[in-house]
Design brief:
Keywords: Membrane, Transmembrane, Transmembrane helix. The protein is mainly α. Helices cover 75% and strands 0% of the residues. The chain is built from 4 helices and no strands. α1 runs antiparallel to α4, α2 packs antiparallel against α3 and α3 runs antiparallel to α4.
């Protein structure tokens, strides 16, 4: 779920913001439609499940990178999108920053999923 939410942001929401960088366009943190309600349950649950199911360390590392990047984006970039007093150029520049940072999140979460699946299959048998 976490992968698809971030992928949606990357493919749908961010291109819209890049095409039309309107200051103050992001809804409030706890307003109806805020992504907080989507991410708040899934991000911690993904990390807890990965630890409880003994995911391989590289997968946990990928999840740690994705959580750290998302926290930086949410705390440093999101407030710019909510601020109606910033310029369109500032919103656009932060949307570019969001695109790259969120791209890292998508890749890290996808890598974690692949690493967990590989570990579940076990070692490759010699041919």
């Amino acid at each position: 779920m976490w992968l698809f939410g971030n992928l949606y942001e990357q493919v749908v929401w961010n291109p819209q913001l890049l095409a039309d960088p309107r200051p103050g366009s992001l809804v409030g943190v706890f307003a109806v439609g805020s992504p907080v309600y989507y991410y708040l349950p899934w991000a911690p649950l993904a990390v807890v499940l990965a630890v409880v199911t003994r995911a391989p360390r590289p997968a946990l590392g990928c999840l740690a990178v994705s959580v750290a990047m998302k926290l930086l984006l949410i705390t440093q970039v999101n407030p710019v999108f909510r601020d109606p007093s910033v310029t369109r150029d500032v919103v656009h520049d932060n949307a570019v920053l969001w695109a790259f940072g969120n791209g890292v999140v998508v890749i890290a979460v996808a890598a974690a999923i692949l690493l967990v699946q590989r570990a579940q299959r076990g070692p490759a048998s010699p041919a």
